Request: fold
Amino acid sequence: MQHLLATPGLQALSRLMRRRVLFAFDLDGTLAPIVDHPADARVSDAMAKRLRQLVVLSPVAVVTGRSVADARSRLGFQPHYLIGNHGAEGLGTLTESSGLDRLRARWRDRGANLQAAGIVFEDKRFSLALHYRQAPDLRHALQAIQAWLHPLPGDLSTLGGKAVVNVLQRAAPDKADAVLRLLELSACESLLFAGDDVNDEPVFERARPDWLTVRIGSPEAISRAMYCLEDPAAMEQLLDVILQHLMARP
Reply:
């Protein structure tokens, strides 16, 4: 992947900015840095200031694995669209899952050993997450989660991430489904999407040629994104360039 703020990327961005663009962003690892405790994550004041400027000039969406209510308290600005649960929450009704209910009961009955191993169970209503960043032995914690999930109810699937195992409804929309729907709702011609993790790859994989997709992280990572930025701090530089383009419009 090429760096977005290098010359070819800036040229692609300049071409994109001639159109009506929906700007869509993941939250953790993209607008906010990854932290040891997920409850501590926040968009920085500097980032939020830029995003408050952006929402005045163009449609903006946040598409996150967190629940909508959880994400809203961490942003410091109000996007036009806030989509949670990896694309499943915020664009319509999703029925409750009997499989998720079974795992909730399983956690109540058999979750103590996982808690003792440093694993945190997060219930986001439409999905679940088992965080193991604080576990003393990450490999052992992941194996314990996988064993605990077996057998996985048939209406569910799992998705890895940065020291987390997500449990999703198979029928739920993903982030690509969400941004395609948001393009329709916003009446935008094109999309800039930035994300950093496995659950962002559906957007990268299904991107149209006229979109601009950005992966936050190492350029050596395996990803279908068109461009990369090294960390959330570089997002501030990208937003500065975007704002310059938008404010220069007649």
The first strand starts at residue 2 and ends at 3.
